[in-house]
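Example 9 (inverse folding). The structure is encoded as follows.
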């Protein structure tokens, strides 16, 4: 039994903010942001627009694309680190809005690695619990969780959502081949490198980050995880058509390609357009790669991500 992707859809909020726009109110510049991160612009939610709103639109598009009856969904897994509220979950709201009357729904909080964690959970439900139809939604609004006067963090993030209809299949030539997940909470304990403060004085709080430490760990751990997953599955980079990494920083992604001697042209990079949209970044990049005719059915794709925790992981799938 395999977990296959029937459809994938994305949604970005309509408000676009360029680096130049940010430099109007912040002591920063397009040059600084672009040379250090590859980011040119980001989509941001407007007042009253929340993570689940983005997720609902992406979910409806994915269902429509597959011409699928949402009442046949058995589970909805929502990856978000920026949920509208502590409860109810974004999953419950999305379930109620899309007519998925028979699906159970819940949120997964694995920060920027949330898509890979959720994919692993969906695969377990399909293989271990005989589920056949699962909707995986990643929806994120990091812009609501940063301090817009802190130039060292706010310029890095964007908002967006992606949704995938995952189904069981007997076809061995298609679908998820493997996932590999890791967590190391000790780094955060000893040296707070990437965290959200939690609510403070009536405000939802802010994201703090030691950029250089995160940069170093991102390269080291994504390198480790892609090597291990390939070796464990008797594969090499020659078997991979595309790498889709978490889109935090173009320089991190180029360093990874260089270390692995993998051509950058075979990596999907959307950092320039979307900035860091946390767990939504891989589905957004995958959607972009498919829409632009790069990723085709039958292609083998390697996914990798690292996020706050630290949590990280990789997956291999045949689209
Ligand atoms: N505009 C202009 N200057 C800025 C700035 C901004 N937006 N943000 C920081 N600076 C300044 C700093 O204040 C510092 O000034 P100083 O030398 O006078 O103190 C200088 O730029 C260098 O800051 P530093 O943080 O050392 O820059 P850097 O080269 O490490 O780049 C990041 C910063 C955040 C772009 C980089 O470290 C990074 O991308 N890290 C990984 C982040 C990531 O992936 N996070 C998400 C993981 S899920």
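The amino acid assigned to each position is listed next.
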């Amino acid at each position: 039994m395999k977990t296959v992707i029937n459809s994938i859809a994305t949604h970005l909020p309509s408000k676009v903010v360029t680096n130049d726009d940010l430099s109007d109110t912040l002591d920063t510049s397009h040059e600084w942001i672009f040379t250090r991160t590859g980011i040119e612009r980001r989509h941001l939610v407007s007042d009253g627009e929340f993570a689940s709103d983005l997720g609902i639109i992406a979910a409806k598009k994915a269902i429509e694309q597959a011409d699928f009856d949402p009442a046949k969904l058995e589970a909805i897994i929502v990856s978000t680190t920026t949920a509208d509220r502590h409860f109810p979950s974004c999953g419950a709201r999305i379930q109620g809005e899309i007519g998925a009357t028979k699906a159970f729904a819940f949120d997964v909080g694995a920060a920027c690695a949330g898509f890979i964690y959720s994919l692993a959970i969906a695969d377990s439900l399909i293989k271990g619990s005989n589920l056949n139809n699962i909707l995986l939604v990643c929806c994120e609004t990091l812009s609501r969780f940063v301090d817009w006067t802190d130039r060292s963090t706010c310029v890095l993030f964007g908002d967006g959502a992606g949704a995938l209809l995952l189904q069981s299949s007997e076809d061995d030539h298609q679908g998820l081949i493997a996932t590999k997940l890791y967590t190391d909470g000790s780094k955060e304990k000893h040296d707070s490198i990437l965290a959200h403060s939690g609510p403070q004085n009536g405000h939802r709080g802010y994201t703090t980050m030691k950029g250089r430490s995160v940069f170093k760990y991102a390269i080291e751990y994504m390198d480790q995880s892609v090597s291990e997953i390939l070796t464990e599955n008797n594969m090499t980079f020659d078997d991979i058509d595309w790498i889709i990494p978490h889109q935090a920083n173009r320089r991190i992604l180029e360093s990874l390609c260089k270390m692995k001697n993998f051509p950058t042209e075979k990596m999907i990079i959307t950092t320039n357009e979307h900035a860091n949209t946390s767990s939504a970044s891989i589905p957004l990049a995958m959607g972009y790669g498919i829409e632009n005719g790069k990723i085709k059915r039958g292609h083998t794709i390697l996914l990798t991500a690292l996020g706050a925790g630290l949590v990280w992981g990789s997956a291999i799938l045949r689209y």
